[in-house]
Amino acid sequence: MLKKSLMLGLALSLTLSTAAAFAADKVSIVYIPKNTGNPYFDSLVKGFQDACAKLACDFTTAAPATAEATSQIPFITAQTQRGVNVIAISPNSPDALNQVLDRARQKGTLVFAVNGDLVGNFDHRDAAILPVDFTKTGPGQVELLGSMINYEGDIAILSATTDAPDQNTWIAAMNDALKTNPKYAKMKLVATVYGDDDPQKSTTEAEALLSKYPNLKGIISPTTVGVAAAAQVLQSAGKAATIKLTGLGTPNQMRPFVKDGTVSAFQLWSPYNEGLLAAYYAVAVKNGTIKNEPGATLDVPGLGKVTVGPDHIINTQAELTTFDKNNIDKFNF
Ligand code: RAM
User: Fold this and answer.
1) Cβ(197) to ligand 1 under 6 A?
2) Looking at 268, 296, 327, which one is the last position of a domain?
3) CA of 191 to the centre of ligand 1 (A)
4) From the CA of 223, how far away is ligand 1's center (Å)?
5) N or C: which end of the chain has fewer CB within 10 A?
6) CA dihedral 219, 220, 226, 229 (to 10 degrees)
7) Tens digits of per-residue pLDDT, 92-112?
8) How far is the C-alpha of 40 from the C-alpha of 268, rounded, in Å?
């Protein structure tokens, strides 16, 4: 009798664990964006979904409500317990995730940093899929704003969170360009503020910049959430003629502000292609058709041949795209 119930228990737990597991013949991928509610990440998710529809990978996405440094930890832990094959993550911190990502990798999960990297902690991820060479982003943004304000006057930066590894990399390079390039000697950075990739907080921070710095000539907001909020603030305050704004934005969020002249130009890349490439690379590595090592190449439909670079970084495009009234209608994301 005891034996019988033991066997029954075993059979039951086997059924349960099989039900919770993934199909053995499919690579399972989870993508963890910085936070929910940011349309930027919808495009990235679409890239993963389209790739997995073609490659038959099993794709899910899950994200915390807010983008603070530790908010992704429970999501990584849950996915590791689920036994997912690949965790792709846009990290909210360069180092707070090290331990949980290590645990995932010890279990055989492949970990990709996507869209932003674990800056200074490359050993805690297997590869990084980034839109462009990140050393170009900061200087590119300073040059664009400089060209709008005749390279002169007080400027401010409206960023995402204080820990955001991607924004912090670009901001460090902006500071460096402002300090070292004589072309920017008359541009003075008076403040760097943080809207946490939250539309409301970004709005409040942009409004505070306007009231605190009456001589402000320009704002750089290297976040899609921040730049859209700042554009709305300038438009409502009727300040677009005196304070120039640029940043990294999505064409769909920025279109009305470009059309009415609030913003003349901004930049970005294709988040969709990052999701697409990440999924193709994940499946190829997991299936053993490619080795995860610098120099390896992979053909991705629509992107051509991509090469894994030093530090296991793969870029989806060579340069940032600049959007203005002449080309913005060609883009829909
Ligand atoms: C926001 C996010 C994202 C960043 C873009 C430019 O949507 O912070 O990480 O890549 O802006």
Assistant:
1) yes
2) 268
3) 20
4) 5
5) N
6) 30
7) 999 999 999 999 999 999 999
8) 11
